[in-house]
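Dear H.,

Thanks for agreeing to be a second pair of eyes. The structure we're designing against is below in token form, covering all 105 positions.
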């Protein structure tokens, strides 16, 4: 390609599609979505959520410069880890106490 036809790289050129949208220069990955998900340990699911919740995630994600689905994964991961930590901190009932209650009850 000659210098004359070259488009200078800029955010605007990418966002407008002047750069990056020409099928002649695009290559489709040979990796399937399933292979990529498997390598990343991801499982595709379907879930119904309140529209307002999804919109909130989209706004938060945009302010952090990430997609809303990765933000949802982060939020779920943090929640589950916190619940696991709380479960480990709770005193477990003593098996002896359970047997005493059964014998007396």
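And this is the sequence the design step returned. I haven't edited it by hand at all.
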């Amino acid at each position: 390609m000659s210098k004359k036809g070259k488009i200078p790289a800029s955010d605007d050129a990418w966002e407008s599609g002047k750069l990056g949208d020409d099928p002649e220069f695009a290559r489709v990955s040979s990796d399937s979505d399933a292979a990529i998900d498997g390598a990343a340990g991801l499982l595709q699911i379907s879930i119904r959520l309140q529209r307002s919740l999804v919109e909130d995630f989209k706004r938060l994600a945009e302010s952090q410069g990430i997609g809303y689905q990765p933000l949802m994964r982060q939020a779920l991961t943090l929640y589950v880890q916190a619940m696991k930590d709380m479960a480990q901190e709770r005193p477990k009932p003593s098996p002896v106490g359970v047997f005493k209650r059964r014998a007396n009850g």
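Two observations from my side: The first helix runs from residue 11 to 16. The helical segments are 11-16, 33-40, 51-64, 68-89, 95-104.

Warmly,
E.
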